[in-house]
Fold these 2 entries.
Entry 1:
Amino acid sequence: MRNVIEVEHVYKSYRLGVIGTGTLSHDLNRWLARMRGKEDPYKQVGVENNRTVAGGQYVNALSDISFSVAEGEVLGIIGGNGAGKSTLLKLLSRVTQPSEGEIRIRGRLASLLEVGTGFHPDLTGRENIFLNGTILGMKKAEVQKHFDEIVEFAGVAKYVDTPIKRYSSGMKVRLGFAVAAHLEPEVLVVDEVLAVGDAEFQRKCLGKMQDVAENQGRTILFVSHNMNAINRLCTRGIVLRSGKMAFDGTAAEAVRLYEVLNSEELKAEASFTPDHTADCQIVQAQLTNLTTGKAERNIGIGQPFGVNYTLQLNTLIRSIHMTMVIKTAAGEIVFLSDRRDDPEALQPRDPGTYTGEIQIPNPLLVPGTYTITLGLINYDNGKFFHAKDILTFTLADNESARAQRAGQIFVPLKWNIEKK
Amino acid sequence: MNEAPKNTTQETEAWSLVIKPGRGALQLRLGDIWNYRDLILLFVRRDFVAIYKQTVLGPLWFFIQPVLASLMYYVLFNRVAKQPTDGIPPILFYMSGQITWMYFSECLLKTSNTFVANANLFGKVYFPRLVVPVSIVISNMLRFGVQMLLLISVFLFYALFRDMEVQITSAIFFLPLLLIMMAGLGLGAGILISAMTTKYRDLQFLVGFGTQLLMFATPAVLSVKSLPDGIIKTAIELNPMTPVIQLFRHAFFNTGSPETWQLIYSGSFTLVLLLAGIAVFNRVEKSFMDTV
């Protein structure tokens, strides 16, 4: 299948800070260099975009991005905040131009970087449908042709002759998406726009995009933080990280890699500075691969692993107990384990340092990223020590059938089958 | 992914759009504007409808502005400063000057901040940016048309009830051309300024004030004929709007046509300004979002 988009070695750099008299000298130097036929003295290709590190005057929002999209493909673009997703879409939709490299596009490209671009609050729904449609590149006659469908899809038939400043924000979003969904471009570029709107409408939008891609053979580039939507809709995925391509492959793999990358900053080990005024404290915790005994946070399905911890008790405590909470990357609690489940836990403890180990059953959880929270409670006085989301681990499975199983838990069952 | 560039060498022609860095050659790209004619019309409609929504008098404001301004000039220049008005009723003299000058200055002022005022919209979607200033010029044209009706009514009032001698000349056939010249001058200057103010906005402060001052260097409120020869008269004659206003007045009141060379000068000035404006504007639109 032929390519409809080709992106080749694209860079985009931005100047940091405000524009003022200070930039004038840079502009003059640049102009002088150009007049003398020299290179731009401020052109710096190769400065990584890491928004947490201060310093520098120029930054590469995108560096060396190359990929191509074939006709009919639905490409998901994922990455954290500031990874360069929106910059890439801006380049594709010609809002601004790249600093280096080349982008080639075949056919009409419509971009939906924002829902309801150019809506005028004083105009009625009807007038805005025409205005928005033509801004997005349709002819008036094309909008007319789809007018009834748009109104029906947005579900605003009653309000079509009311100024849209009287609309609820949800209605505006519905109307905006409805117009864009009825565009008929060869390539549709959609930024994270579904985040607004209710669940029913989000489902409707995803369905519409699926329909456009599968039944009408259009190409879609889709940016989202909703990994389910990416998984469901996209045939391919690319992951951007600090302006660089981190991955290009299937959507499912891209989503998994993104989740791993996302949690890479978090460690398999955590330690806390001892506080002698506290009655009790966790001083150290570590995720351990129980086969090797080493700290590890990427765990395979079936691989025995657990949490090793060190406690510091500064006084005699008659009743102390400890909890561990495992949460999904989305923050939902999968389960809570409490030492009171074990009656021995309630026995008095002398001051000192204690170490312990919690074995986590495996297989138990479906592949994904999880966080561990540890808690320590002194029942003598009710004081507690809480270490929230201190450890992160990723469960992965290479067997494709299990890689994406639905549900929260993963328990291999014995299936009995006999022939009668 | 690596073989992609090789395929494309044979089918480069098939790409409908190639996005590259750099400023590129100066281009007019008027075809793009034509493709977006529906959008221009909708913008015109939006401007026209939206301005006077939720006002009681609505489009009547189109009349009130030139009437009040003409009355003020009448009092200031005619009554107080005793300036001659080429032998035509002062109200008509000022109103005709006012309506033509207003058209030019509105085109200039409203288009001169195209990039800054529309940064939000331009940051989200691509369409030829020139669509916006062109639509501004056209919606001002509608306003000019409505104000012409006012001028004609006052003209008829003087002709019927004040025994003014009606002296319409054949220059009336040049009205469409005059309108195009005013539009071209206003648009050319406006988009040139808007292209120059995307990064450093200093010029913006000058524009509003400057156009106000510039009015006094045209026959909008002064009779050029009755000025003594000298540097002031020459300066006014060098203003490309001068022959336009003179010819406009001549069409209705036979006040004397400007010289042919003046018209040719003004026409060429307009054409050069407009083409330069469009070319610079088109060059800036590619990357202004980064600096605006």
Entry 2:
Amino acid sequence: MRFNLASFFKQIVKVTLLSGMMILTTVMPTSAEVVEASPQLEDKLYRQALYFYFTGNYGAALNQISLNRQRFNSQSSQSRLFEAGLQVTVGLHHQARQSLYHLQREQVGADDVASKVDNTQESKSNTSPAELTLIALLQLAEQQIEQGDNKTARATLSKISQVSNAYSDQYQILNQLAYWPELPVYSAVQPEDNVDEGLNKQSITVAYIELNQALLHMERAEFELAKPLLTKIKNTFWQPPSKTFWQLLFSPFSTDNEGGFSEKVNDEKNQQQAVNDYAQLLLAQLYVKQENYEAAYYELKNFPQDSPYSESALFIFAFSAQKIKQNTLSFKLFNLMKERFPYSNLGWQAALLLATQVAEQMSLEEGMTSYQNAERLYQQRLAELAYFQEDFLASDNLLSFAPGKKSVAMSKPETVVANELPMPFVSQKSYVTDSVWLQKALLDNELKADYQVLIELDSITAHLQTQQQKNLWLQDTLALNSTRKAKVFELQQQGHYRSIITELNAKKQQLAKIITKAEVEKLGYAFANQRQEQWLARIKQSKQVITFLDGNKNVEEYKKRVKRVEAVLNWQLQQELPERLWQHKKQLKEIEQLLVHAEQQRKRFVILADSASLLSDLAGRITTSATEIKTLLKSTAELRVMTSVKIADKVQQFVDKQRGILAQHLLTARHEMAAVLERMAKYDKRVERQLLPAKKHTKAQNINFNEPEQDNTQSNSSPDLNHKEGF
Amino acid sequence: MNMNVLSSPSVTRLNKALLIAVSMLILSLAVAVKSYAVTVDSSATNGKLSTALEDIKKQVLQLNRDLFILEEDLLFPASTQIAVFVSVDVGRFFKVDSVELKINNKDVAGFLYTERQRKSLEQGGIQRVYLGNLKVGKHQLTAIFTGLDGEGRTTQKAITHQFEKDDDVVMIELKVEDNESNYRANISVEQWIL
């Protein structure tokens, strides 16, 4: 009747743990199940993506959003807009357009409902969905313009139906850019100019609008309209626009949220200076177009040397100086121009202008030498261009053609840690080359974008190769798991856990019966401890001895003593019965729970063991991934070839264009040289005539009479060889 | 002499504005330079290529996600998965430098923050600092944060959390929160409800 609960307890725990251990070693892909996320959880999932975004890992942020949707069906408009922003960032424009289109449609519905509910709400919050969508569309259009795709940018801008004050400037600028050189077409209702709304009249965005406007006026020869605009821009201190988080999000590689304060201040200062310089330069150009060279000269007299527009400014300044007879200065400036910008069209033109000036103001011989120098310069450039063309077209990998020593790093992500995904799309580097011709060609935005595509494709290829390795590793891991699973099943087969659990259940029931019986019949001895059991055994033994001796000896005294001892023991056991009964019942309950748990685990194990599809499902997914990777690698390689061909075509066009310009300059230089030679011949003849004896004077006069008096092209500047201006 | 601005307008941002504007400002002098640009309708090719590139990017993204899920399913099934996250609310009174994690007194993870990562947390990001496996039952998580307090002194803050692992994923967020009343930061724990 008596039993040892402690050993029984240990046995059950052992079964449970072993069963649990086996469950652990078995693959259970239940995490793939989709869980519906509560708004609170959705926010947390969204913030995980935000973390990646803030650390500059845009690809991981986009992946996180995608994972959130896959795992938790997270579909909040905020996270979808964030996704659209990231899609713009990584260049998934088509997807971004689709996401924004859906958001806009939903938003129209939501706005209708909102307007019915609350008509008094006039101003929307800074982050209302409408505003966020507007930001997204504006930034998308900006990227399309930067890639030279103005047509698509127009289509994107036409989707905007309303613009608030805060984004009006940006909207106007983008329209100007997209429709250039035509007049912009504004599809959206723009806010009326309202000072109270806080529109910053000194914002640099206003400067851009006015600069574009002035350029448009200049294109249409409306100089008087352009002049006041440019004068105002060059004399105004412009303030940088403030950007919201969402605006920053949609601006890829924006450095606004990085870098220190001083870097930001410098950047703003440069931007301010660049706008002023550009306005000044355009104003000077306007004066030149009006042939007001003196005004142009004085406009550029104090132009900063380190301005990004110094090349153009220097040229106009030299040209104006030449026109207003500042010969010494113009000579020096054209020389400087020629030396400093040997590959620029302006530098080439400077060589010609310099030669013309020398021929006119110094001597014909020196002029001739100067033209010969210019001719040599063009021939040299043409030869270099031919060499570049040959070299470039022979290059197998365009990215390895004259690569720069260091590439420009853009938004650098933090080191990728375990379980984070790398970002394959946002190329962190821009292409830098040592080839001056290619540098010049890369000033074309489309070509630059194509090079960026090439870099991205290489980055994707490298990423796919890594994923291929990872897939192989997963395959190996799965194989290991399969082996381990087989071993575990074998162990399980040997363990006969079902029969063990059944046996333990039977024992438990038996114990339950004992406890019930002890409770009903108040059997205190059922719960006797070790000492009491020894006593009970001794009593039993004593009784047997007394029975054996009975009749032979007087055992009455013994009987009384045993009875007394037994009574005392019984009394003790009865006293302790309630407490012990409660303890045993409690332990029995625990055993019951453990057995239930063990049985559950055993059943789960059986289910897992029976469903062979779990591992085969994973194996199938791995195989699919391997196929996908192969296909993608193939597509990437094909696209790379196509992009390379496109780049080669564009570079070929660039070379042809440059060759044309150089050939034209060469031709002009040669024409001018011929003219100089002609003038030299005429001069020689004149000198000859002067040196002829008097008898031939009449004949010489006749000859001279047949020749034109002056070359029309040299009307006011017939070279006076005796007169040399000091430079 | 003909001085034309063969240009399009200035652009919105400085760097790009400079590049484009300089290239735009081509002044043709002395000779009327003919346009040698070959008029090729490249928009069709551009469209094709960009669509193809976008398509590849989209597929790579999907592949990334699928492989990530596959990896998680294989290595961290829900029945054993535990994930620990870190978030910072404002972060004025405690600048997080590093965090160490212990589960059942065993070191499981540690993370040293860069300035940018710390700022990312302070801007509202949530970082998953640990992903691992645990068997069903009761466990103890200990997190030790090291950082600088409001006065720039190196400080350590620790928290212990008891939790029970069942068949579902356990997600625990360690929150570093500013306490305005005593100008100190507190660490609190939130177990996400799935």
